[in-house]
Amino acid sequence: MNNKVESLESLISLLPIIQAAVPADMSIAVCDLTKFIAYYPGENISLGINVGHELNPDEPLMTAMLENKYFRGDVPAEFYGFEFTGTAIPVHNEQGVVIGGVAVQIRRHSELIELAKQIVIALSQANERIVKAVNGSNVIADLNRQLLVLSQEGSESVEKTDQVVSIIKNVADQSNLLGLNASIEAAHAGDKGRGFGIVASEIRKLSQETINSTKDIHQTLQALKEVTLQIGDAISQVASISKEQAVSTEQISEFIQEIQEMTGQLNDFARKL
């Protein structure tokens, strides 16, 4: 370890240049064997060291000088209100004798680390919600497909029912025609056909009512058919939108995972600062 200088004063004269040249916010303290003889605080880091302040026996700088060793350690925020990394190194004269020491403090980017942690937590929670949303969208899409199938089956059932109504109308028309012919024959029969004529009249009346009912049923079925088709179109559109939303949500989830990975890298980088 070659930390030789002509004098501590010559070292002190270089510290402002070193502090300005290093691309980091740091403070530098210089001491002789008993006290601090120079201190240069940083822009955002100051330990409040005063020149002439006696060294504490437990001071890392004192330990570095006594043991002639380089020390480095992280100081937690509860001591000075912020985290920083401190180094302590002994300084020798040209003969190799320890004549003092230098301590450098670089503020750790704890705020950046904490922010990265919060971002990771927030993204993780957001990703969990999005995964649930994706699952929900897929379920909705499946239900919409089932509803679309049911709607199509309903439309087909309406078509079949309309055919049945058409058959009933044909039967009613034939019954009405038969009732008319029966009334004519009953009239030809005179008094003997009067009872048969009454029956024929009732048949014609019933068939006419059936014809009128089938018209109403047909109109109702047509309206139901139109509504069913509209419902089918609406369900089809909803199914399409749900599918698009599910795809978009999955893409957002992938994007958030990428951000999580980058945030993790940012966190690792911040810890190395």
Write the layout of secondary structure elements.
Blueprint: H1 8-21, E1 26-31, E2 36-40, H2 60-67, E3 71-75, H3 77-80, E4 84-92, E5 98-107, H4 110-189, H5 194-272
Antiparallel strand pairs: 1-2, 1-5, 3-4, 4-5
What is the gist of this entry?
This protein has helices at 8-21, 60-67, 77-80, 110-189, 194-272, and strands at residues 26-31, 36-40, 71-75, 84-92, 98-107. It is α+β, with helices and mostly antiparallel strands. It folds into two domains: 8-108, 2-Layer Sandwich (Beta-Lactamase), CATH 3.30.450; 113-272, Orthogonal Bundle (Helix Hairpins).
Query: How many domains, in number, for the residues?
Result: 2
Helix content estimate = 55-70%
* Main β-sheet description: 5 strands, antiparallel
Radius of gyration: 48 Å
CATH homologous superfamily classification of the largest domain? Methyl-accepting chemotaxis protein
CATH topology assignment of the largest domain: Helix Hairpins
Strand content: 5-15%
Reading side by side through the largest sheet, how are the strands ordered?
Answer: 2-1-5-4-3
Tell me the name of the CATH class of the largest domain: Mainly Alpha
Oligomer: single chain
Q: What would the principal axes of the Cα set say about the shape?
A: rod-shaped
Structural class: alpha+beta
Uncertain stretches: none
What order do the SSEs take from the amino end to the carboxyl end, as H and E? HEEHEHEEHH
What's the N-to-C terminus distance?
25 Å
**How many distinct beta strands?**
5
Mean pLDDT across the residues is 75
CATH architecture of the largest domain: Orthogonal Bundle
Number of helices: 5
GO molecular function, one term: transmembrane signaling receptor activity
Domain Methyl-accepting transducer: 155-273
Keywords: Transducer
Protein name: Chemotaxis protein
